[in-house]
Amino acid sequence: MKVTVSHQDGMKFEAKTEKSSFVIDCPVISPVEYFLAGIITCSATDMVLIPKNQGKTVTNLVIDGDVVRNEEQPRKFNTLHLTYQFNSDADDVTAARWVMASLETYCSTINTIRDTTEISYSIIHNGKTIRENEKMISGGGSKIDMGEIESCPS
After folding, report:
1. pLDDT per residue over 1-49, tens digit each?
2. How does strand 58-69 pair with strand 21-25?
3. Which residues of 44-80 are buried (b: 16+ CB within 10 A; e: fewer)?
């Protein structure tokens, strides 16, 4: 993957990808807001494609992201809370599995920040809250020493 950013005028920049281009107009939308939107959109695409591959449909999908950043430089993300709200023709357990599959496995942008950002989520499925302020299994912003782990011989 390659992206080239070039200064246009004032605080406008053009980002060119291998497939397209777009303008980043600071401070109308900051690069950090684009970054957060990219993280959310990555998971949103999973939330459409995973069910589709299972013969299911997701409608009325809205994902809200709320970030708390450092007060001082570098102003990195400390916490990220995602609220997934959607309807589907699946049961609640399956709907929750779609969210977890996106968060834990498929969404590369979330997996890029998960070791430095504490990530939590809530799920509202078919109008009912089925998960509230759950933390990602492996996120947390720090490395945890699990000690030596035995494995099966290969």
Report:
1. 999 999 999 999 999 999 999 999 998 999 999 999 999 999 999 999 9
2. unpaired
3. bebbeebbeeeeeebeeeebebebeeeeeeeeebeeb
Whole-angstrom Cα distance, residue 16 to residue 19? 8
**Model confidence pTM above 0.90:** no
Closest CA to 113 of 84, 79, 137: 79
Task: Tally Cβ neighbours within 10 Å of residue 118.
Answer: 17
Cα separation, 6 vs 13, in Å, equals 6
Query: Which spans in the chain are helix H?
Result: 31-53, 92-101, 108-113
Strand (E) or helix (H) holding 13: strand 12-16
Q: Do the Cβ atoms of 117 and 139 come closer than 8 Å? A: yes
Distance CA 131, CA 74 (A): 32
Residues 81, 87, 89, 92: is their CA dihedral positive or negative?
positive
Angle at 88 between CA 87 and CA 89, to 5 degrees: 145
Helix boundaries (H) for 102-148: 108-113
User: Domains in the chain, ordered, with CATH?
Assistant: 29-135 (3.30.300.20)
